[in-house]
Amino acid sequence: MQNGKFITLEGIDGAGKSTHLAWLEDYLCSKGVKVVVTREPGGTAVGEQLRALLLDQRHTMHAETEALLMFAARREHLDKIILPAIQRGDWVVSDRFSDASFAYQGCGRGVAWEKLVLLEQWVQEDFYPDLTVYIDVPVMLGRERVNSVKAADRFESETDAFFDRVRTGYLERVRQFPQRMQILDGSLPLDEVRAALAGVMEHFWLNQALHEK
Ligand SMILES: Nc1ncnc2c1ncn2[C@@H]1O[C@H](COP(=O)(O)OP(=O)(O)OP(=O)(O)O)[C@@H](O)[C@H]1O
Ligand SMILES: Cc1cn([C@H]2C[C@H](O)[C@@H](COP(=O)(O)O)O2)c(=O)[nH]c1=O
Fold it and tell me: Which residue among 82, 120, 133, 195 has its CA within the 20 to 30 Å range from the CA of 99?
């Protein structure tokens, strides 16, 4: 059996990840692959508990505690959901993965990049997404969209300066991983972002087919 694939969506809060993830699931199902949709932090019983803790406005924690909890949730996610699904030949689509830790905990909170690299190696070894779609939006637009949908959580209540740093962190990851990471302009109208995502997916799909021949 062919191994499955791992695709992640990234972006600051309100970039449009959840919206495009739903489309992506339909797209992959139409190609005949079995899709597992998941999210970080979360995706497992333990991970969802950690998510509740991490997003709860009432908690304050050291930035490194936050980073460690994100990677703890990820370890569980890999073990219980992501790796078993890929081994079955399913495709896993996750709303966020480790690029978020570099953007939010690294650039946003100031956790040393080298410490995050060590955590990433420890938890993931050589495992990375096959494709990451980073949806880029200006900070103000992301905030407006989040505010129109729900009450802000612990991250969404952060300052514009925090989100500017997070965005810079994502762009640094794109610079480091240009093959794996594709940028979409999430400030465009929804149908235009979707068309761009469809283009990225068709290209990825054809490439996979060529490699598997
Ligand atoms: N390109 C777009 N144009 C207009 N509205 C959009 C666009 N993309 C997303 N939205 C809207 O913005 C809101 C937030 O989108 P969505 O929940 O998908 O973002 P998200 O990145 O998943 O946010 P979060 O990280 O906070 O969960 C939704 O109401 C969605 O319909
Ligand atoms: C995986 C991951 C996530 N975060 C932050 C980013 C978001 O504000 C929340 C998750 O909520 P959403 O539903 O995706 O908006 O968690 C983080 O700071 N570090 C991480 O590694």
Answer: 195
